[in-house]
Amino acid sequence: MNPIRMKKLESEIIRQISTAILQGKVKDPRVFLPSFHRIEISEDLKYAKIYFTALCNNNERKKLTQGLVSCAGFLSSFVGKNLHLHTNPKFSFVWDNHYIKSLDVIRLIDESAPKTLFEELHESEEDSESEEGEDEDEGKDEENDGESEDDSQTDSDSKPS
User: Fold this and answer.
1) pLDDT tens for residues 17-68?
2) What is the mean pLDDT of residues 115-124?
3) Can you tell me the distance from the alpha carbon of 23 to that of 25, in angstroms, rounded to the nearest whole number?
4) How far apart are CA 68 and CA 93, in angstroms?
5) Other beta carbons within 10 Å of 83
6) Coil, helix or strand for 91?
7) Which positions ≥6 away from 57 have C-beta within 8 Å?
8) How far apart are CA 3 and CA 11, in angstroms?
9) Could you tell me whether strands 47-53 and 35-41 are parallel, antiparallel, or unpaired per DSSP bridges?
10) What is the DSSP string of 25-90?
11) I want to staple 96 with a disulfide (CB 3.0 to 4.6 A). Which of 2, 51, 108, 123 is the partner?
12) Is 31:64 a contact under the CB 8 Å cutoff?
């Protein structure tokens, strides 16, 4: 199959599956907002391996995977009907560890990247402003303490005995 057509078909299958889940056509409560990242389709369009992730812990991940596996037949027929495919691909869902590792690598790169001149200047301005703000707050507290004593004396003087 033409590689361009294959890429279009891959993106359309992911879009159709996402639409079915978001519209509530998948009734399984274990399937909750997965994020589909990539798909590998065989040349004869009989098999499709779909990689996904979601914001969840390990127990929820297992439940989500089981839910997707249980509704794979429905999703396959749904996609086949909407895309008018001659053969409906058999879906298998796989947790995408590569995507999660790539996010960790990106985070590490961002942390280790040297700061730009703008970031350094902006950081030094924030530090100096926060130090000035702390000094001013301490001075205000000292002034307020003196005023409160004066106020209490005038209040006691004005009270009739």
Assistant:
1) 999 999 999 999 999 889 999 999 999 999 999 999 998 898 999 999 999 9
2) 76
3) 6
4) 7
5) 13
6) strand
7) none
8) 12
9) antiparallel
10) ----TT----EEEEEEE-TTSSEEEEEEE-S--HHHHHHHHHHHHHTHHHHHHHHHHHHT-SSPPE
11) 51
12) yes
Centroid of chain to Cα 138: 41
Separation between Cα atoms, residue 81 and residue 20, nearest integer Å: 12
User: What DSSP letter does each residue of 93-155 carry, written as one string?
Assistant: EEE-HHHHHHHHHHHHHHHHSPPPHHHHHHHHHHHHHHHHHHHHHHHHHHHHHHHHHHHHHHH
> What are the tokens at 48?
């499709």
Question: How big is the chain, counted in residues?
Answer: 161
**H or E element at residue 15:** helix 3-22
CA angle 113, 116, 121 (to 5 degrees): 130
What global pTM score does this model have? Answer: 0.66
Query: Using CA atoms, how far apart are residues 52 and 140, in angstroms rounded to an integer?
Result: 56
- Structural contact between residues 52 and 66, judged by C-beta atoms closer than 8 angstroms: no
Name the token pair of 30: 């274990």
The pLDDT score that the predictor gives to residue 144 is 53
